[in-house]
Design a protein that fits this description.
The complex is a heterodimer of chains A (about 110) and B (about 110).
Chain A (H helix, E strand, L loop, with lengths): L2 E3 L4 E5 L4 E3 L2 E3 L4 E8 L6 E6 L5 E3 L5 E5 L4 E6 L8 E9 L6 E2 L3 E6 L1
Chain B lengths: L3 E4 L2 E4 L4 E8 L5 E7 L6 E7 L2 E5 L6 E7 L2 E7 L7 E8 L9 E2 L3 E5 L1
Parallel strand pairs in B: 2-11
Antiparallel strand pairs in B: 1-3, 3-8, 4-5, 4-9, 5-6, 7-8, 9-10, 9-11
Classes of the chains: A mainly beta (about 110), B mainly beta (about 110).
Chain lengths: ~110, ~110
Amino acid sequence: AQSVSQHNHHVILSEAASLELGCNYSYGGTVNLFWYVQYPGQHLQLLLKYFSGDPLVKGIKGFEAEFIKSKFSFNLRKPSVQWSDTAEYFCAVIPDSNYQLIWGAGTKLIIKP
Amino acid sequence: DTEVTQTPKHLVMGMTNKKSLKCEQHMGHRAMYWYKQKAKKPPELMFVYSYEKLSINESVPSRFSPECPNSSLLNLHLHALQPEDSALYLCASSPGLAPRGEQFFGPGTRLTVL
């Protein structure tokens, strides 16, 4: 069955630290990849997405992600986090044969001021 | 307008009540979704509508009844719910049903069943 794994359920960092959140998926075919963010009390927003082309994609708020096909990974990065990045981050994929989002379990990120 | 709106923001209901959740989008999207989200969990897909027709019902109990009156509106009718149905109910829309279709989410309705 297709699945998405997010390695860290909770991450605590200090402001200005660098961030990398892991995401791996299990599906042998072509996938479309997404990172969504849910700030406290707010709706899910798309941070970035990858469909094809340059495997390094840039999103909103200084986030970027790199698609490594050989590792079935789509890790999210930010060079220097801010307190306002405190949120729940979800990785999700849609196989090219489908249209339903397959979600990872989420990573709760807490940034200490 | 790139918003999906949902009303009400909060809803408390008893197990014998009947209530409805409402979702609206004016982006011209033809696919709309209902999700249920429990605390600290990802959203779980409940229903998908495409061109106002129900495409997917993910084995949701019949106490949840979706309705899509037109391409901009999506309702979820609730009847005889259980306390375990308490959750955040999210509506989303996308241009169509496609692998590259970005879904836009509403803020959700926080439902508490007593």
